[in-house]
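FORM 12-B: Structure-to-Sequence Request
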């Protein structure tokens, strides 16, 4: 009898594992086709069977964010963090959703959690700078931008943020940074537009 129960239990576990793998596989196919609602829907039966599992919540957070349902994304990222409180990837997803909802204080607080673990985390610093710029806290945003550009001197994402800060606090420096950006990326529209506007205003 015990052997029969073990065989049944093992068979059920195997079938469940296959159904989980199949559901995730389908969700990736739907995501690739931009069918985010369908990608979410196919995972929901799996989620209902294990609402505390880390990866299902991480995956749903990602998909809800792609579907622009940021409140649901935040809910699932938070659930993922209950299971794995040190997860940087879950914190990053949370920050992006906070930024999308203009919950800047929450975004800043979450970014600082990441930076306590990883001071030079690329996206942790980047999203923190975005939030600080939106809050017009340019001094701190400038400090962080310079810190990261000391590590990534030709990084366009950070150079764009540095230039954006300088357009507010130091236009001459903004021109220099945008010219440097054009050296790296001659097709930069933002750099060309700002330099052209600046030339027009000083005529």
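FORM 12-B RESPONSE
SEQUENCE OUT:
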């Amino acid at each position: 009898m015990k052997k029969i129960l073990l065989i049944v239990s093992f068979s059920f576990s195997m079938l469940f594992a296959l159904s989980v793998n199949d559901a995730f596989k389908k969700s990736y196919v739907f995501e690739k086709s931009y069918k985010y609602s369908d990608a979410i829907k196919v995972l929901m039966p799996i989620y209902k069977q294990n609402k505390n599992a880390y990866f299902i919540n991480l995956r749903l957070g990602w998909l809800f964010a792609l579907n622009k349902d940021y409140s649901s994304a935040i809910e699932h990222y938070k659930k993922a963090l209950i299971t794995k409180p040190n997860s940087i990837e879950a914190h990053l997803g949370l920050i992006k959703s906070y930024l999308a909802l203009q919950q800047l204080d929450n975004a800043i607080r979450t970014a600082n959690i990441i930076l306590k673990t990883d001071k030079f985390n690329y996206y942790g610093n980047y999203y923190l700078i975005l939030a600080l710029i939106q809050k017009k806290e340019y001094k701190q945003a400038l400090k962080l931008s310079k810190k990261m550009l000391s590590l990534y001197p030709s990084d366009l994402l950070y150079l764009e943020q540095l230039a954006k800060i300088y357009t507010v606090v130091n236009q001459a420096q903004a021109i220099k940074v945008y010219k440097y950006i054009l050296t790296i990326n001659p097709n930069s529209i933002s750099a060309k537009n700002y330099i052209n506007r600046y030339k027009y205003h000083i005529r």
